[in-house]
Model the fold of this input.
Amino acid sequence: MSLTKNEIRSLLSDIENERVERTLSTDNTKKMSEAICSFANDIRNTKKPGCFLIGADDNGVLDGQTFTDEQLRSYAGLRNSGTLLPPPAMMVYKETFPEGEVAVIEVQPSEDTPVRYKGVIWIRIGARKAEANTEEERILTEKGQIHSSSFDGRPCREATIDNIDVELFKNEYLPKAVSPATLAKDKRTPIQQMASLRLFDTRFNCPTYAGLLLLGHDPQYFIPGAYIQYVKFAGTTRATKVLKENRFKGNLISMLKELEYFIKYSIESKRPEFVSVLREEPRINYPWEAIRELAMNAVMHRAYNGNNSPIKFYEYSDRIEIDNPGNLYGKVNLENFPNETVYRNPNIAEIMLNLGYVNRFGSGVNTVSTLLEENKSNPAEFLLGDYTTFKVVVQNADVIENSNDVIEKKPNVIVNGIENGTDGTDKSEFGTDNGTDGTNEMSREDAIVNLMRKNKRISIKEISAQLNIPRRTLFRIIDALKTSNRITRVGSEKSGTWEVIE
Done:
C-alpha cells in the first residue's frame, strides 16, 4: 500500500535518515539507484520501507515540478534494468501539493540481501549513504541466508566446497558480478565472496543450489533434472525418425555457452527466396536470437525443486517446442502474462544477467515477439493450461499455411491454453498428420528428381508451375534432397545445372 498524502508531507518535513532521501534532480538515475539499493539492504533491519522523494530539496521544500507518466515509468524501470541485483520490490507514484508535485520511489526491505547496484553494495545508516564495508557486507549476507525462501537460495547440505569449481568462480564469474573497484579492495576468501553472492551458505558450510548449478563439477548429481534434452525429428510427431540428439548438461557457465553456440549454428538456416528475376532474399526458418531467448528463459524460470524432468527442446519439421517443468509462478497468471514478472529462481536470474545471457528483466517475451515479427514468422504460441509445465511453440517460417500446401497445415485448436485436436484428443505428440507420414512428400520428391533428370537446367519457377508446389515449399524439399544426397547443384544458382545422383 502506498503512503498517504499526510505521510508524504511528514516525510518531506522530516530530516533525512535511513528511510528518507530527497532530491530536486529528475534524471539522476545513478543517485536514485544507489538510494534504492541502500533502502533494499535495510542494514539496520528496520523492516520498514525507504522513500526516495523527487522534486524536493534537502529541507523538504517542493519547487513546483510536475511529473509525466513517462517519467514515472522510467523510474519504475530502474528495478528491471539489470543494474540492481537482485531486483528489489518497489512502487513508484506521485502526489500533488499546492507547491507542486513529488514523485515517490517506495522501496521495501529485501530478504535476498545483499543487493548490489552495478556490483556495489550500498547501505544507509542515518543520513549516511556509502558502500558497505566487509563487516556490513557480512551482516547483509547472513541476513539473506536466514530469510532465503527460494529453492535456488537454499543450502544443499549434501554438498561441500569440494563439489564447487573455485577457480571457475574466481576467474569467470566473480569479475562479472562485482565491480572492479570493489574487487581491488576485497581481501576475503573465495567462500566469503561466494556467500556474499548467495552461492554458499556459511551457516552449514555448503554451497547453495544456485552455487551448485553455476559452479558445480557435477550439478546433475544433486539436481538430476537440471539439463536440456534436444531432439530433432524428421516429421511433425515424436513417432517419426530421430535425426539428431543432444544433451546439454554440466554447470551453467559451460552449459549455456554450449547451448548458445548450438542454437546459433545448428538451428537457424538460411536459403534464397525468389523475389524477382534479378533479386532473391534470404529466408530464415527461425531467427536464432528468438530461440536463444526462449531457451535461456526456460533455464532461468524452470522448477528445479523436486522435479527430475529436463527441459525438452524438440525440433520438428514444422516447429520448435520448448517444454519447461513448472508453469506460471507467484502472482503471474493467464490474465496478466507476460506483463507481470515474478522470479521462481531469483539467484539464477541474477547469475544469467551477470553472465550476459539476459539483457533486462521482464522483457524476454516482448523481445521474442519483435524478432519473430521482423522475420515475418508467426507469433510464438504459449500453451499455459497445464499447471505442471510451461510450453512454447515457434512455427518454422518456411512452413506455408495455405490451401495449396496441405502437408504443412495442422488443424489444431487451443482449449484452455493446451494444444488439442479438433476432436478434443491431444495431437501435440501423436495422431493424424494430414499426409506427413512421408508418402505425399516422397512422391513430390520423386517428381522433382524426374524433372531434373529430364532437364538439368530446369528452373525453380518451372518446377513450381509444373508440379503446383509453392516456391517456399519447393525450396524446403530441394534442401532435403540435397541433404539426402539425391541431387546436387553444379555451378551458380542462375547458370548452373542440377545433377541427379543415381
